[in-house]
UniProtKB/TrEMBL annotation:
Record bears the keyword Ion transport: no
Top-level taxon in the UniProt lineage: Bacteria
Catalytic activity: Transfers a segment of a (1->4)-alpha-D-glucan to a new position in an acceptor, which may be glucose or a (1->4)-alpha-D-glucan
GO biological process: carbohydrate metabolic process
Lineage: Bacteria, Pseudomonadati, Pseudomonadota, Gammaproteobacteria, Lysobacterales
Organism for this UniProt entry: Pseudoxanthomonas winnipegensis
InterPro entries: GH (IPR017853), Glyco_hydro_77 (IPR003385)
Enzyme class of the recorded protein, top EC level: transferase
Family named by the database record: Belongs to the disproportionating enzyme family.
Protein's UniProt name: 4-alpha-glucanotransferase
């Protein structure tokens, strides 16, 4: 079969047949890969006739969209009959009347929101519209100043210790950190993902959730919701005090043991009678959750094997109210943003979120990344996502519901792999990561919906844009108010020299490192190189050459820090250097605030490194001084 018909179908389905790799080299996807992916998308392509038939079916599916998006104060193209009358209904039922212009478009709409257009030929439900503001809610909006210099801390929730956290962390630990950060003048606490997870398998990752719309009950802090007396009473009744104390004192997270103990506590709590006010609040939560909550807890009960949706309903309430209280107290303590949630790029293809939207999910395909300098074979993440066609056909309902869930009562949201709004690397489930292809997404629609929900929820949006991204994407995101991320060790010029803080982006969040990168203390001594050499990740390394390069990089950073007015030798001066960025928000990872040498996660490693398991020290006597110094440095930086 000639490649022409196959490539035409692939293009119509949103697959990028031709792409550019990390070395800026043009690549063409193998026909065998295209066929495998198209077949998974239920687009038969074995013969030219099948390709043509599948392409016609695609064109039919991509006819009138279920939801059209536009921006305020611009004409809205709806293909109406020129000159015909229409009625525009807002979400409150208020109506405006008008006539389509000569191009069949609506006149500009000034107020962001969701609308319906009733007109001849549009059917009983009319034409659904989402009208977005020109940009997302910003740090400046949240702080009430034109050039904010806000700052906060990034926290792996499981790593923060409390006496009864069963070694897995909880909302109380996050609250303790929020209070300390707020006391130092900080405005935000950025959390690792707290999405609902499936029952724990051999390995745990917060970026492989069951359902991103709901919470992981393991992070519930019972005392925050029920009070200390009720929480302790259930703990004693279940005989769990000693076990939880032992787990909580552990150096590393015991995900299996901790989960077992926490669920035993949750069961004991549920057996207690709630005070009248709390019982009423539980019922209100259930009513607000509606069918989505019921579907989730039914799935969770079956998935866990306990067959008790009521337990999972109760646990969701406890978790939701725990995080609500953390946000309330963070804001009351003076934080202008409070909690920043982390939105994973995908979900377990066999989890609750996939089950909730079966018509909108990519079946038989998982996400990953193409080969790059760090992963010569590429990456297969084993997580699923939504189908572009499924999103369009559903009126983007899964995406809107997801945004509302993760933005609700949050000061901000960090979107992992923001490139996913434009394209995702997909491959057949079980296939090799290198045998994948980029799948295009309706970027303009998704970006508009992101801006709309951001404004409605008053939630700042941070898009993780590290690595190689298409030319111009960062600029487009910045125009729409999506902040990028500037990481100290990557913020350099073409020759590898570190950029002075004044040259860092104003349209990004400044930070010293991320969970996937070495801490500054670890980077300085080559701790990441030790792990690479020990585990063989990224292939064999020339350790002498790597050490020499690292020494040169450290010297370069020290020189630039000295040029910025710091001593260049101490970790504190490196932190201050990043804090001087003109970014509207700077985030200091807890590991760097404490001067730790080990990083939370080592990408590409399954065995041999305690990924997502490192706990912070029990005693942190120097933390308050580090936070105060970072706050001072923010005040000294470029406005």
């Amino acid at each position: 079969m000639s490649a022409g018909a196959l490539h035409a179908l692939a293009d119509a389905a949103g697959l990028l047949v031709d792409w550019v790799d990390v070395a800026s080299q043009p690549r063409t996807v193998a026909d065998t890969t295209l066929r495998a992916v198209l077949e998974a998308m239920e687009l038969p392509c074995a013969t030219p006739a099948q390709c043509a038939d599948s392409q016609r079916r695609l064109e039919t599916m991509q006819g009138r969209p279920a939801l059209r998006t536009a921006v305020v104060d611009t004409p809205v193209a709806v293909e109406g009959r020129p000159g015909a009358a229409y009625k525009l209904l807002d979400e409150h039922g208020q109506a405006q009347e008008g006539r389509f212009d000569a191009q069949g478009a609506l006149g500009p709409i000034a107020v962001p929101g969701y609308y319906r257009v009733l007109c001849e030929g549009a059917g009983e439900d009319g034409i659904a519209l989402a009208i977005a503001p020109t940009r997302c809610w910003s740090v400046a909006d949240a702080c009430g100043v034109a050039q904010p210099r806000a700052w906060g801390v990034g926290l792996q929730v499981y790593s923060a210790r409390t006496p009864l956290d069963a070694s897995i962390g909880d909302a109380q630990g996050a609250l303790d950190w929020a209070r300390r950060v707020a006391a130092a003048g900080g405005d935000a606490l950025a959390l690792s993902p707290i999405h609902a997870a499936r029952p724990l398998q051999r390995h745990y990752s917060p970026y492989s959730p069951s359902d991103r719309r709901f919470f992981d009950p393991l992070y519930a802090a019972p005392a925050l919701v029920l009070g200390e007396a009720l929480a302790r009473q259930a703990l004693q009744a279940a005989g769990l005090e000693t076990r939880l104390a032992q787990l909580s004192a552990a150096a590393l997270v015991d995900w299996h043991g901790g989960a077992q103990a926490k669920w035993a506590w949750l069961r004991a709590l549920r057996e207690q009678a709630l005070p009248e006010a709390l019982q009423a609040d539980l019922q209100a939560f259930i009513a607000d959750g509606g069918p989505a909550l019921e579907q989730h807890v039914s799935f969770a009960a079956a998935d866990a094997g306990d067959g008790d949706p009521g337990l999972h309903r109760y646990a969701q309430w406890l978790a939701a109210r725990s995080w609500q209280d953390v946000q309330r107290q963070a804001r009351a303590a003076g934080m202008r943003l409070g909690l920043i949630s982390d939105l994973a790029v995908g979900f377990d293809p066999h989890g609750a979120e996939a089950a909730a939207w079966p018509q909108a999910v990519l079946h038989g395909l998982v996400l990953g990344a193409p080969p790059d300098a760090f992963n010569a074979d590429g990456q297969a993440w084993g997580i699923g996502s939504y189908s572009p066609a499924g999103l369009r056909a559903s009126g983007f309902a899964p995406f809107i519901a997801l945004l509302r869930a993760v933005m609700h009562q949050r000061g901000g949201v960090r979107i992992d792999h923001i490139l996913g709004l434009l394209r995702l690397w997909v491959l057949p489930d079980g296939g090799r990561a290198g045998d994948g292809v980029y799948l295009r997404y309706p970027f303009e629609d998704l970006l508009r919906l992101l801006a709309l929900e951001s404004w409605r929820q008053r939630c700042v949006v941070i898009g993780e844009d590290l690595g190689v991204v298409p030319d111009g994407l960062r600029e487009v995101l910045a125009t729409h108010g999506v902040l990028g991320i500037d990481v100290l060790m990557f913020t350099r010029d073409a020759d590898g020299a570190f950029l002075p803080p004044a040259q860092w982006r104003r349209s990004a969040v400044a930070t010293t490192t991320t969970h996937d990168l070495p801490t500054l203390a670890g980077w300085r001594i080559g701790r990441d190189l030790d792990w690479r050499e020990r585990l063989g990740t990224g292939g064999r390394i020339d350790r002498a050459a790597e050490d020499a390069q690292r020494s040169q990089d450290v010297a370069r950073l020290q020189a630039q820090v000295r040029a910025d007015g710091g001593d260049g030798q101490t970790l504190a001066s490196w932190l201050a250097f990043a804090a001087h960025s003109p970014a509207p928000l700077a985030l200091l990872p807890a590991e760097d605030a404490l001067g730790l040498e080990e990083q939370p996660n080592l990408p590409g490693v399954v065995e041999g490194h305690p990924n997502w398991s490192r706990r912070l020290p029990q005693d942190t006597p120097h933390l308050d001084a580090a936070l105060a110094a970072f706050a001072t440095a923010r005040g000294e930086g470029t406005p």
